[in-house]
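Hi everyone, sorry if this is the wrong subforum. Our group has a chain we'd like a structural model of before ordering constructs, and none of us has done structure prediction before. Sequence below.
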Amino acid sequence: METSRNINIIVAGCLLKSGKVGIGAGGKIPWTSQEDMARFRQITLHSTVIMGRKTWESLPVRFRPLKLRNNIVISNNTQFKCPGAVLARSLDEAISLCEPEKKIFIIGCETLYNEIIDKHPEKINHLYFSAINYDILEVRENEIDTFFHLEKYISIDWKQVETKTYDDHKFTLYCL
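Answer:
Right subforum, don't worry. Here is the predicted structure as C-alpha cells:
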C-alpha cells in the first residue's frame, strides 16, 4: 500500500437513543434523504468506491454499478458476481487495484469501516459524515443491525473543514 493519505470515508448514520450510530437495517438504509444521496453522488463522482458485498447487494439493481465511478466489491466468495465492478478478496487488494490519480472512498460496510480505522488509520484523509435526524428513520430503533463505530474515529485529531445543516440531516467534513 502507498504511504500517503489517500483514502476517504463517506458514511451516513443516525445517532440512536442507545448512543450507537446506526447505518443499516436488514440490508437496507433505514431512511430516505434525497439531499444526502445527491451529495454522496456529487462527492464520489469520478472516483473509486470500495464496498463490501452486503453494501453492493443493498444497492438497487438499476444503480449497480454506481455510474461514473470505479466500483470495487470485497467478498471472500470467489463465485460472487458483481457485473460492472471489480471483485477483490480483501481491503488491501482492493486498494492495490485503485488508480493512483483517483480519489478512493470506502462507502460501506461496517466491517470495512472498522478494518480501515483499526489497521490503516494513517491512510485516511477525510471523513465525510452525514448525521441523519432520528425522526426520519423508517424502522424502529431495535431493527437497526449495522453500525458505524464513531468512537473509533473520534480518537483521531480531526479538523472540521465544513458543516452544513439540512432539513433531515447535518453534513460535516473532517480532515486530518
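For your construct planning: The chain has one domain: 7-175. The mean pLDDT is 93.
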